[in-house]
Amino acid sequence: MSHRQILFVIFGLMAGMFLSALDQTIVGTSMRTIADDLDGMALQAWVTTAYLIVSCISTPIYGKLSDIFGRRPLFLIAITIFLIGSLLAGLANSMYELAIFRAIQGLGAGGLMALPLTIMGDMLAPRERAKYQGYFLAVFGVSSVIGPLIGGVLSGSDTLLGITGWRWVFLINLPIGIIALAIVLKFLHVPHLSRPVRIDWWGAVTVILAAAPLLLVAEQGRTWGWGSAPSIACYLIGSLSIGAFILAERLMGDDALIPLKLFRSSTFFMATVLGVLVGFGMFGAMMTVPLYLQLVNGATPTESGFLMLPMIAGLMISSIVSGQLIARTGRYKMFPTIGTAFMSAGFLLFTFATADKPVGFMMAGMLLIGLGLGQLMQTLTIASQNSVGPRDIGVATSASTFFRQIGGTLGTAVLFSVLFTRIPDTIRAAFDDPTIASGVTAAATDPAVQADPANTGILTLLANPGGIGGALDGDTSFLNAADPRLAQPLLVGFNDASVTVFWVSLAVVLVAFTLSFFLKAPPLRTTSALQEAADENAAELAAQAALTRDAQRAADTMGALIEPGIDVDEFDREARTESR
């Protein structure tokens, strides 16, 4: 493909990627407002996890179907489903409804996440891809910067055009999505080399049965009890389905949803493992940090969007630098190690967080995490694509994205479970602290504090100590204007629970840092997957033509196998009679 053709295709990919990237960032800073309005702070994990579960399960399915039917129609279907889910989410009236509609969004997002990377892998050689990554970095960077800001502005507005402000967080996808559809229809035309394959129905069914229960119990285990009957049922269903999935993939061979032969490559295997671990840390940071900034640091949703800029800036800077170095040298082995080291440093800094530290402390940690993520996100995808042949680019990319999404979904579910499991204990511990308790007592007995309506929520809690542990499970807006002495134990409790989350993230990223030394990095190919596939087809056609010419030449050389003048029909009849 010419440079001009590549740019036109990239325009279509950028439109779809912008839709997906904007949604992920715009919802994060709005979730507290949404949860407060729908009275379901503790249920927000359902909303996030439903989206991630469905998106990660659908990712390998999109990859396989795009191998069969082509990238373009699947990309259009993904955008359409995503828009339907966005419309429904904007009309939700409860956290449970929102979770269901976010799941529909996730069904479309699975294609928006995997297919652009797959198409890029088709068009461009791994080493050449870095030349074009600036376009995608611009889309991701712009959406990451304006997403939290737009989310904060919309969720901070009571109404907009007669509709509750936070609902526009989802409805804004509609005009953007229509534009994306138009651009994709106009510019996204990628050659599709079809080949006969079997559809792996059993693989699709078993991957759903394997992933969904395990991800569900990761999110709900704290509520059900890790040893309860529903949890044990999820463990059994998930474990048995993993075995069934492996068996189905083995029987399907090259036509499998995720061909097992991919894991014979040590590079693909290690890049996949690192993707799971990095996804765990990345999603954990992106989901918990905005909530921390709003609750502990007192930032509004809009302000928390601005405060996330160091992470985005670090991500863009390190992505551009690492991409240029990869394009020039063809080497990428060092970036996963350096990237996980930066992430580890960021989470380590977070573990020293206290409720009275300035917001700049958290911003420094976010910068380090962003510098790490920028060296990891594309590098691991390039490593996976470079380790397989051209016919497996689709399944390799979708599998890589699938496992990274699995890590992200587990990260979100597990870390939110840890957070809300720890909050009751840390809040009670904060109330038991003599210094904090004396401040609470002084404030609670102050007539001016008692007369201020902003303190009613916390004073009600103090009158009913049994409900203190669940004070942050529902609407947390009562903290916004409350007396600082009354709010301090709740903020300290949330901070201490968050520190536990940061320790878990640090441990996971340190494992990734250790494993990064074992990543083998073969030289990057200089030919695109489409070109390689075309070359293979041409070679096969040439081989068939050569065989035909050899057969004709042999026939010409040997001549007829019966003597001239013999009646051929009579000869056939005699031969059949003789054979009987």
Description:
The structure is a single chain. α1 (3-28) packs antiparallel against α8 and α15 packs antiparallel against α16 (393-432). The chain has a two-stranded antiparallel ribbon. The chain has helices at 3-28, 31-37, 44-69, 71-89, 95-123, 129-156, 168-171, 173-187, 201-224, 229-252, 266-295, 301-307, 309-329, 334-350, 359-386, 393-432, 434-444, 447-451, 456-463, 484-515, 529-558, 568-579, and strands spanning 159-160, 163-164. It has 4 domains: 1-188, Up-down Bundle (Growth Hormone, Chain: A), CATH 1.20.1250.20; 201-256, no CATH class; 270-525, MFS general substrate transporter like domains (Growth Hormone, Chain: A, Up-down Bundle); 529-579. The model has no long low-confidence stretch (mean pLDDT 78). With 580 residues, the protein is mainly alpha-helical. A hairpin with a 2-residue loop joins β1 (159-160) and β2 (163-164). The chain is built from 22 helices and 2 strands. Helices cover 76% and strands 1% of the residues. The protein is elongated, with a radius of gyration of 29 Å.
Q: Structurally, how many domains make up the residues?
A: 4
Structural class by sheet pairing and helices: mainly alpha
Fraction of residues in helix: over 70%
Spatial gap, N to C terminus: 61 Å
Subcellular location: Cell membrane
GO molecular function, one term: transmembrane transporter activity
Keywords: Cell membrane, Membrane, Transmembrane, Transmembrane helix, Transport
Membrane topology: Multi-pass membrane protein
Write the layout of secondary structure elements.
Elements: H1 3-28, H2 31-37, H3 44-69, H4 71-89, H5 95-123, H6 129-156, E1 159-160, E2 163-164, H7 168-171, H8 173-187, H9 201-224, H10 229-252, H11 266-295, H12 301-307, H13 309-329, H14 334-350, H15 359-386, H16 393-432, H17 434-444, H18 447-451, H19 456-463, H20 484-515, H21 529-558, H22 568-579
Antiparallel strand pairs: 1-2
Helix pairs in contact: 1-5, 1-6, 1-8, 3-4, 3-5, 3-9, 3-16, 4-5, 4-8, 5-16, 6-12, 6-13, 9-10, 9-16, 11-12, 11-15, 11-16, 11-20, 13-15, 14-15, 14-20, 15-16, 16-20, 17-20
Protein name: DHA2 family efflux MFS transporter permease subunit
Domain Major facilitator superfamily (MFS) profile: 9-524
Keywords: Cell membrane, Membrane, Transmembrane, Transmembrane helix, Transport
